[in-house]
């Protein structure tokens, strides 16, 4: 994070530092997933660092592409472990439980008993950054 702030300070002065800070603030959207225990603080720190380098708009695009990539990777992960049906059933039940109870604590038991296990999200974040960069480079956004 500090590196992104310093590089933006050197590259553009105070206005670019503000963009870095705004990018970090945009990355804080991810805290919702951390609080719901769908992601860890390491992923949040990685997105804050991405925000410091990319600024708020590109961080928003990165989060969008990260969620899409994570969904595709999650399906592939569940297919590979042959637990896709079980995973979809748990997701539906978990959504109903969360809607009824309004507490992420109610989902802890489901996470611990999941047959699919946990999936690292850093690769999805890397894909999100790469897609943001490629699409921006090609003038798509």
DSSP helix fraction: over 70%
Major beta sheet, specifics?
none
**Low-confidence parts, pLDDT < 50 over ≥5 residues?**
none
Structural class: mainly alpha
What's the number of structural domains? Answer: 1
> What is the residue-mean pLDDT, rounded to a whole number?
86
Task: Give the total of beta strands.
Answer: 0
Task: Provide a count of the helices.
Answer: 7
Principal-axis shape: elongated
Q: What Rg is obtained from the alpha carbons, in whole angstroms? A: 17 Å
Beta fraction: under 5%
Alpha-carbon distance between the two ends: 24 Å
What is the element string, with H for helices and E for strands?
HHHHHHH
Instruction: Kindly report the oligomeric state of this protein.
Output: single chain
Topology of this structure?
Elements (H helix, E strand, L loop, with lengths): L1 H11 L1 H14 L3 H5 L5 H40 L3 H18 L6 H5 L9 H16 L4
Structure description:
- This protein is mainly α and 141 residues long.
- It has one domain (2-81, 117-137).
- 77% of the residues lie in helices and 0% in strands.
- The chain has seven helices and no strands.
- It has helices at 2-12, 14-27, 31-35, 41-80, 84-101, 108-112, 122-137.
Structural key phrases:
77% helix, 141 residues, mainly alpha, 7 helices
